[in-house]
Each structure stands twice: as C-alpha cells, then as structure tokens.
Amino acid sequence: MDFANLSAQLNAGAILPEGIVIITLLVTLVWDLIVGRSSTKVTPYVAIVGLLIATGTLFLQWDTTEPISFLGSFNGDAISLIFRGIIAISAAVTIPISIRYVEQSGTSLAEFITILLTATVGGMFLSGADELVMIFVSLETLSISSYLLTGYMKRDPRSNEAALKYLLIGAASSAIFLYGISLLYGLSGGETRLSAITASIISNGLDESLGLVIALVFVIAGIAFKIAAVPFHQWTPDVYEGSPTPVVAFLSVGSKAAGFALAVRLLVSAFPLVSDQWRFVLTALAILSMVLGNVVALAQTSMKRLLAYSSIAQAGFLMIGLIVGTDAGYSSMVFYLMIYLFMNLGGFACVILFTLRTGTDEINEYSGLYQKDPLLTLALSICLLSLGGIPPLAGFFGKIYLFWAGWQAGAYGLVLIGLITSVISIYYYIRVVKTMVVKEPQEMSEAVANYPEIQWNLTGMRPLQVSIVVALVFTSLAGVLANPLFNLATGSVSKTPMLQATEPMTPVVSQAPEQLPMPTVESVDL
Question: Over the stretch 368-400, which tens digit does the pLDDT of each residue have?
C-alpha cells in the first residue's frame, strides 16, 4: 500500500478537533514545567481558547463527505460532531469556574487542567468510536482521568473517599462492560467494527442466540454506570458530595454526554437484532431513574447531593429519546443535552461561588441570600427552575420536545411517568429558591449573615462571575430562541446514516391504538 492510499484510509483530518485538544494539553503541561506556579496566569485561558478552537473546527466539519477515518475505527458523522462539541464546551466552561476553587485549595491548577483535558479527549474519541477496541480505550481514558479528578484534593478525606468509591465501582463496571463486548466479539467471529458485527452474527446463524442477550445485558450495565442510571447510580451521591465541585460539574455533563453517545452508537449499530430487548431494559432503567432520582432528592439537605439525584433523574428523562428510536426522539435527546450543559454547569458554578464564600453547601445555609448577593440568587434560581422545567426557560422546552417525541411514538406510560416526576422535581427546586428569596431578615442563616464582602479582583473570581452570567443568559434565552438549537439537533440526526437505518420502537410501556397509524416524525415548532 502506497502512502497516498494509506493517507486516504487514515483520513486523519476527521480527528483534527481532538488533535487541537491534545496539542493544548501538551502546551499546558510543558508551560507549567518551564514556568512553574506562575503559569496559572496563562494556562487556563490557553486551555479555554484551545477548546473553543476545537469546537469551531467541529462545525467546519459539519458537511464532510468522508467521516470514516483510521481504517473504520472512528466515525466523525454529524451526531458525533454534536456530542464532541458538547463535551468540549463543558470542559471550556468548567475551567473558568475551577480557577479560584483549585487555587484556594493550594493544589496545582495546571495539573488539574491537564487531567481535565485528558478526560475531554477520551470523551470526544468515545463519541465517535466505531470499533470495539477504540471504544474501550476511549472509555478508560475518560474513566481513569475522572478518578484522578475526583481525588484531586488529596488533603481532603472526603475527596479521597469519593475517589476510592468511584474507582472500585468504576473498575467493576469496566470489567462487566469489557466482558459484554468480548462476547460480542466472539459471536461475530472476530469482528471489531460495529458496522460489520451484525452482518457477521447473522451469517454465523447466531442472531437468536442467548449469548447475544447476555452480551447486551453486560453492555447496558456498563453504559448505565456511565450515565448514572438506577440501579447503577450508587456511586453518584457520594462522589458528587466528596469530589471537588468543578469536577462534579464536568462529570454531570461531559461524562454523561459521552455515555449517551456511546449508548446511541453501540446499541443502534451492534444490537439491532435485539432492539426490542434493549428498549425494554432501558424503559425500566428510565422509569427507575426518574422515580428514585426525584423522590430521594426531596429529602436532601446538601446542594451537591440534591444535584446528584437531580442528575440521576435527568438521565431518566434523556433515555426517553433513546428508547423511542425515532428522528424526533434522538433530536430531542441531543437538544436537551445542549441546554442541560449550561443550566447544570450554571447551577454548579453558583454552588462553587457560595462555597468559596461560606465554606458550606447545606441548603438551609442559603436562607436570605438575596439580601447579600442578588446576582448569585438570580442565577441559581433561574438554573434550578430551568432544570425543573418551568416555562419559558430552556429546560421547559427541552422536556416538551422529549415528551412530545415519546407521545408521538406511543410511549404513553413512559411520558406520563416523566410528567409526574417532573412535577415532583419542581418542589425540591423551588424549595431552594424559596429558602434564598422568601426568608425574612431575621431568618437569615449564620453563613449568610457573615457573608464576606464581594471581591471580584481576586484570582479566578472574574472568570467565575463571567461563567455565571453566561449560563444565566443562555438558560434564560435558549427557551425563547429554541428553534436554531433544535434545528441543529435535528440536522445532526438527519445527516447520520446510522440513525436513519433504525426502526422506530414498538411501544413498551403502553401500546398506541391499533386503528391509528404511527405518526410521521417532523421537526417540532413551538
């Protein structure tokens, strides 16, 4: 094979965004080694610029005609571009909200950013991985970096405990997932490319074998751990509470987006023969996640644990789009992830700011906060109300699109459970807002009463303020200006051949009336 043919088959330009992030990572690391601790004045902004350039490069690849690269190992199709963009932007937002937090802890900011960028690279490669070996290597790159970030505050016993729990449960999850894909490899007769696995299984006469169902169960267990779906959620509350808050912010969005990207590609490409089975299992996981996540969140007294159970519930809502398997379902899932990025990271940025000033994240300590910090109160209230689905905020339209897609596909029971649990979620979100806003001056908490004077000129405070304002503006306006984002999500699905070749679901929770034909999927316009 001559060099020209090899270069054409590698098609290395498809991973140019990941290459930019890797170069940024190396520049950050080398600059820190040369300059030392004073590099913190430059490295965060270099990393943010690198991530934004990588995101811009993703959009330049939108209409690419040759998305396959590295001999079929990587697929840079439209749906992967969106997921990779979400992961890159989540890292770019995480960095400014972490500067002051990491500096105040006395640990190295450059090393933190280096590990965060490594996790970002792993998540981006995972979103486009189209081959079993690459899927596992990318997944482990993301996972190991996440373990390191979780235990980054080595002087904090809670951070050490969270990292240990995450590592042990994550290692077990990775082993289970690896066993599932190894079964898939064996059933296919040695195929590793997702696009060739199903054809090979059929040719071997194993399309109805028990081994395929067992492989499916193990694979779903690994995916459910990554997206924090019940009953594979046990790590989430403890890890969220003990980990550094910026790390939790990234895990709640970047890691979750990578998990859903993996779920879409692996289940749709490698398991179409058992699509009814995996949709049934995911329906059960979605119901459990929505019910348990929202109900248990009612009893939480810590903001980080409340957001942890909220994250579990949000995974249940997002799975509705994957379960129905229509264009509208996939589009609504992608759209919700895009707006979830800003409203969830905005909420965590507010928690970080409050923790930096008071040293606590207990909900009752937020009492009367509006009297001392109106910006923080407004931003946290908007982000929480958006997560609850209050109109006209972004979260309301995200849930409307998801429930509309499920209802159109005939999953009436699943949608009704989603609606009921959404109403439950509004209670605990509004409880926090009420604590901040409604309390009388004499009911002000001790932490708020001793609230320090706002000093935005401290290192890292101005980027944190900018992040909060950006999240506030986006969460407020994304609902009213939802059509451009939804058109982007719809375009990513319509331009992805893998998703166009799938069959819509046969409703699991509730069947559509037999006399009515299945409605066609069109882009919604509210």
Answer: 888 888 889 999 999 999 999 898 888 999 999
Residue-range domain boundaries for the chain: 11-505
Contacts of 457 (CB under 8 A, 6+ apart): none
If pLDDT is split at 50, 70 and 90, which confidence band does 35 have? confident
| Count of Cβ atoms closer than 10 Å to residue 297 Cβ | 24
Q: What string of DSSP letters covers 284-337?
A: HHHHHHHHHHHHHHTT--BHHHHHHHHHHHHHHHHHHHHHH-SHHHHHHHHHHH
Question: Phi and psi (nearest 5°) for 240?
Answer: -65, -40
Question: Crossing angle for the helix pair 394-409 and 412-437, nearest 10 degrees?
Answer: 170
Q: Which residues partner with 75 through β-bridges? A: 68
Q: Can you tell me which residue has the tokens 């590990």?
A: 115
The helix-helix angle for 109-128 and 256-270 (nearest 10°) equals 20
Assess contact for 446 and 357: CB atoms under 8 A: no
- Within the chain, what is the greatest distance between any pair of CA atoms? 80
> For residue 362, which of 298, 451, 447, 302 has the smallest C-alpha distance?
302
- Beta-carbon contacts of 225 under 8 Å, excluding residues fewer than 6 positions away, are 169, 170, 173, 177, 232, 235
Residue 503 binned pLDDT confidence (cut-offs 50, 70, 90):
low
Give the separation between CA 281 and CA 263, rounded to whole angstroms. 13
Residue 443 token pair: 């009911």
Q: How far apart are CA 361 and CA 357, in angstroms?
A: 10
Residue 30: partners with Cβ closer than 8 Å, 6 or more residues away? none
* pTM given for the model: 0.92
- To 10 degrees, the CA torsion angle through 259, 261, 264, 266? -80
Please say whether the beta carbons of 487 and 391 come within 8 A: no
Regarding predicted confidence, which is higher, 455 or 92? Answer: 92
DSSP three-state, residue 239:
helix
Neighbours of 455 (CB within 10 A): 8
* pLDDT reported for residue 207: 77
The pLDDT assigned to 12 comes to 81
**H-run or E-run covering 396:** helix 394-409
- At residue 153, what are phi and psi to the nearest 5 degrees? -80, 80
One-letter amino acid of 265: R
Confidence at residue 336, expressed as pLDDT on a 0 to 100 scale: 94
Indicate the SS3 state at residue 514: coil
CB 523 within 8 A of CB 326: no
What span, in angstroms and rounded, lies between the C-alpha atoms of 175 and 280?
Answer: 24
